[in-house]
Amino acid sequence: MWDFGRFGDNVAIIDEGKTKITYRQLAQEGKQLAEAAGKRCLVFCLCENTIGSVLGYSAFVEHNIVPVLLSSHLEKELLDNLLSAYSPSYLWVPKEQENSFPDSKTVYESYQYVLLKTGYGKDYPLYDELCLMLTTSGSTGSPKFVRQSYTNVKVNAESIAEYLSLDETERPITTLPMNYTYGLSIINSHFLVGATLLVTDKGLMQKEFWNFFKEEQATSFGGVPYTYEMLDRLRFWRMELPSLRTMTQAGGKIIPELHKKFAEYAAGNGKQFIVMYGQCEATARMGYLPAERAIVKCGSMGIAIPGGNFHLVDANGKEITEPFVAGELVYKGENVTLGYAECGEDLIKADERNGVLQTGDMAQFDADGYYYIVGRKKRFLKIYGNRVNLDEIDRLIKGKFSNIDCASAGIDDHMYLFVTDQSIADEVKEFVAAKTKLNPAAFQAIVIDEIPKNDAGKTLYKELAKYYG
Amino acid sequence: MNNLEKYDAAFIEALEITKEQLEGLEYQQIPSWDSVGHMGLVAAIEDAFDIMMDTDDIIDLSSYEKGKEILSKNYNIEF
A323 to chain B nearest CA, in Å? Predict the structure, then answer.
């Protein structure tokens, strides 16, 4: 994938404790780790933004071992479900979690991470092109993974490096988890050019983050819409950040006012603000708005990335050729992933999409061919950049509370949980916040007399919109 | 409400917690006090005291006690 050796003594990763690892060391350490695993197999990686975590991931990809990237904070019960569905040969986990897996044996250790051999003894056959797997939502614990191929990961990273003009002088700082497709794409694209990753699990709201940012001269970061709201709240405009060159945004549609504010700040301060569009199903990126168009095309997610193309189809599947007519956005490119897996038997599956992805997003383009997202076909919300499937939330609630009628709906970053029983409203809200591991501020329970349904008993979600407008 | 009551109320409302949880409470110690919760908390404190906090103070507010210290030192709010 990256061939680390060619970047020699370039520093590949620096962490908050000033520990550094060069590309040469990354290649050497990676080789030893891969030898410890011994064969092409499936490994669950419990990720953090640390050297050990990135080292393991990159070693597996580089040596044809298939990592599944999950959060190290994943709820135990959800993780157990995933483990039993896929029975991976190994786990790559932070050393402090070593004892959480008593049935596994430590076979290798590096940079505070350990390789644990599991006792499943059941290796599902893996499709030759399968490179890695990621979750689509990450939070609700669905066993559904996106299967990404070696070609997917490589071409998308190359395309990103091209349109962002990345080179070895870049020093991106982590603001997103690496098990999140956008966070991972930053690692993948920067490793391709020999740049230096600054890794930290500290966040924008912490002093340690900004100290690290300034001391190590970060040149770029990525953020979801909520990240930019936080930066706005932090009065980011007043901060002295001379090393900063580029801010990228993805993971949902940023509100046009904020888009404008950051585009103008960037233009006035010799920096770039680049809005992008993507999905895990397309590896990571599909579209981007070139920095020089950030102000004139405010509110747009841009054009297709190098090597890809967009078109729109109407309800009858016919291509839309007129500007300002909304239709479903379809993307074509080599970064369109193989498909999904829902259990171990699916790991042998080949390419099911053939380079075409129906995004599920409704969009239109302007007279210059710039695309604007206008809505969604499917029932999901983006909460702080995380895709949360509303039907799945309904199922989770109904599974937990017996004899309950409920329906969830809302807008990005604000989910409304409709219930008919006042006495459990708070409990439902707490349950959903805990299950998704998202801040409870995103959820509100609303008690109504009855959940609106049609004659066939199907919930009329549109009628709920009047409660939150 | 006196200043302490206002300060406590901002925490209780923004982080959806009880008064008993306040003492010794630190950033990221509970699920609701993450970066999202922090933003809500800062907004609640700013509203309660009608102030605009500086960036350095916002990122320095790492515990219940630290917040009091910042408010009294930099914003002349007595507890």
Answer: 38
